[in-house]
Amino acid sequence: MRSYRHGNLPVALLAAAREILDENGLQAVGLRETARRVGVSATAAYRHFTNKEDLLASVAAQGFHELAEAMQGATRGANPLIRGGLAYIEFANQNRGLFRLMFGPVLAERSKYPALQAASAGVEAMLVRGVTDLDSRSLNDNLAAMAAWGLVHGLAHLIVDGFFPAARAMVQAEEILAKVRLPRPPVSEPTS
User: Fold this and answer.
1) How far, in Å, CA of 142 to CA of 146, rounded?
2) Non-local CB neighbours of 133 within 8 Å, separated by 6+ positions
3) Contacting residues for 149 by C-beta, under 8 A, at least 6 apart
4) Mean pLDDT over the full length of the chain
5) How far apart are CA 180 and CA 87, in angstroms?
6) Which of 32, 113, 122, 158 is close enough to 163 for a disulfide, judged by CB 3.0 to 4.6 Å?
7) Number of other CB atoms surrounding residue 165 within 10 Å
């Protein structure tokens, strides 16, 4: 247990929750354990998070912001779709517990948490933009974006769940993504 000193308690609680998530998995994360790890009372933690799910939603929102940042940085230059996909997979590989939380059933009702919903919508918008700048339909209506996301997300889960050998996971993912030709939506014909 580390002793908490004056500062930003919500940030300290989020950091501790992520440590617990990484070390012991989702089931081990709770407000009491998180507060104990930071060195404050559970009552202090409840002043910032109403329950465990609220804490987890805040952790997941952080994860979506970090994922968006990683993908944004990767999509500059040649092959932005492949590079963005690899950034997504690398994020999942380096943040396995967080990735499982972000896309797991515990927080399936994202609309209960506006910050989480906004953060995940930011990643979805980036996925749509990565497929094409010509098609501004939402992710659910954009087959090319859904195909790209399904491929990348599936590869990420296979790596996270240990189905790819860890030493070759990123190399294999890059080889797969380089061979895939994603459909492009039709370009509208100019009117005369």
Assistant:
1) 6
2) none
3) 127, 139
4) 83
5) 17
6) 158
7) 10
* Nearest-angstrom CA–CA distance, 96 and 112: 24
User: What are the φ/ψ torsions at residue 43 (nearest 5 degrees)?
Assistant: -60, -40
Q: Which domains does the chain have, with CATH numbers?
A: 1-49 (1.10.10.60), 52-179 (1.10.357.10)
**Residues in CB range of 139: below 8 A, 6 or more apart:** 124, 125, 127, 128, 145, 146, 149
For the segment 39-64, what is each residue's pLDDT rounded down to a tens digit?
999 999 999 999 999 999 999 999 99
Distance CA(47)–CA(189), nearest Å, equals: 57
pLDDT digits (tens, 9 = 90+) for 76-133: 767 777 888 889 999 999 999 999 999 989 888 888 999 999 999 888 877 766 655 4
Whether 156 contacts 131, CB under 8 Å: no
Residue type, 139: L
Residue 161 DSSP class = T
* CA distance linking residue 113 with residue 124, whole number of Å: 17
Answer for the pair 104, 26: CB distance below 8 angstroms, yes or no. yes
CA gap 12, 132 in Å, rounded: 39
Task: Say how far apart CA 174 and CA 182 lie, in whole Å.
Answer: 15
Which tens digits make up the pLDDT trace of 59-84? 999 999 999 999 888 877 677 778 88
Distance (Å, whole) CA 184 – CA 77? 20
